[in-house]
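subagent[fold] <- orchestrator: predict structure for attached chain, return tokens only, no commentary.
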Amino acid sequence: MTTTSTVTINRPVLEVWAYFDNPDNLGKWLRGHKEFKHLSGERGQPGAKSVHIYEEKGRRMEMEEEIVRRVEGKEFNGILRMKGIMESTIRSQFKDLGDGRTEYNCVVESKFISPLWKFLCLFMGHSFKKRQDADVQRMKEAIERGG
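subagent[fold] -> orchestrator:
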């Protein structure tokens, strides 16, 4: 399953990049994000590994992240894994539109491991897209209001 979200942010590309690249901001725009733990490698660089902890509806979820590619101010790619459930490849691109505006594009390719989740995905695909769009919109709003 692949979902794509694109938004224009009324801030310069390097400001958008700096906000996106700061793990302290994750909880401000990713719904349910509670904690970021760096595990290994140079933080924020290809090969680095970390854990993202989410809490929703009384449930705690952990996702392991591995950074695959990073081009300062332009691109950030990683893999998120939820053991036994899914693996998602995330490609984030930042395009300088001029006039102090940035186009942010996020493509997520998710592969479900669990037979149950493979089945549920048939009915829940729209909710994954809706959630991704909402997260990207929250990022835009947070950056535009300065925090």
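orchestrator: received. Logging for downstream: DSSP finds three helices and seven strands in the chain. Residues 115-144 form the longest helix (30 residues).
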